[in-house]
Amino acid sequence: MPVITNIDDLKRIHERRVPRMFYDYAESGSWTEQTFRENTSDFEKLRLRQRIAVDMSGRSTTSQMIGQDVAMPVALAPVGLTGMQHADGEIKAARAAEAFGVPFTLSTMSINSIEDVAEATSAPFWFQLYTMRDQDYTSRLIQRAKDAKCSALVITLDLQILGQRHKDLKNGLSAPPKLTLSTMVNLMTKWRWGIGMLGAHRREFGNIVGHVDGISDASSLGAWTAEQFDLTLDWAKIEKLMEQWDGKVILKGILDPEDAKMAVKLGADAIVVSNHGGRQLDGALSSIRMLPQIMDAVGDDIEVHLDSGIRSGQDVLKALALGAKGTFIGRAFVYGLGAMGQQGVTTALDVIHKELDTTMALCGERHVTDLGRHNLLIPEDFEGRWQKV
Prior knowledge:
Blueprint: H1 7-17, H2 20-26, H3 34-41, E1 47-48, E2 63-65, E3 68-70, E4 74-76, H4 82-85, H5 89-100, E5 105-106, H6 114-120, E6 126-129, H7 135-147, E7 152-156, H8 166-171, H9 181-188, H10 191-198, H11 218-226, H12 235-245, E8 249-254, H13 257-266, E9 270-273, H14 287-298, E10 303-306, H15 313-321, E11 326-329, H16 331-362, E12 376-377
Parallel strand pairs: 4-11, 5-6, 6-7, 7-8, 8-9, 9-10, 10-11
Antiparallel strand pairs: 1-12, 2-3
Helix pairs in contact: 1-16, 5-16, 13-14, 15-16
């Protein structure tokens, strides 16, 4: 067992053990990847205020996200193709999250299905919904999540059209992998991954295959998916989805104060400040840079979470200090999953928790809910001086 001290340690093992196309799927952004890079680099611009001679005993990172008790305000983000990073990846990640005491969010584009994950776990999980043109399929998908006792619906709003991701196109990304010469050569070096996948419960998109007429193989699935994202999605449709769900709703993909205000108007339980991990609109500002403006716009009218760019417990602390009530990690847990399966996800959570707890103490705070801007040194130009029409 290698000594793991930070998330980058897991990332290096992940790269060695997982086929190139799935590593690149996780570790890439759209177009020039400017937003992908700045999601992480902008956290570094925020500095921490060290405080001394304070009582650091009795610390607690426990909190709540949409009324749910959590061991720390961190949820596992919805990540497509998680079951290709490691055999039965969604199940293993959900089990790790359940044991740790944080929410797990299952992606519409998962390999393990809603029912697979529900059968393998005992704690309710969250389900992330992509809105599809096939309204009958969307309705049935929502009902399946209800039947599985999912405790929240996370509606992703920033993927009506797919941002171009150069690496995925060049790798011929698919599930299961297409056996081209280059793919086969790469797979031959990933024997540990291959042995695991031989015993995997599924190797195709479990929420789609078998639930849509005419889809029997990867090519028909790809054609269906390419034309299914709903270009006509608007606030009226979002409201109807919320009514259909009739439970806790989180709207993910908010990156503008005006959109945040609309989410409040619709009565959502929470929003996720997110740019899809830099995988959609390249050139957009980072999530952490946009968070202060969105907090100023909505205040306490809605619970605000942050996604995109978190790689450490210090990043979590900085997001909370700027006003977020919760955070989502995607790549950070995927690195762990690809590196060491369920134990790797647990290790990623342990790393982030320890960093959050220790940093909180050194900032002079005993409870995560006491964090605020007084714990940060914020550059005068952090929010930028951008002109808007």
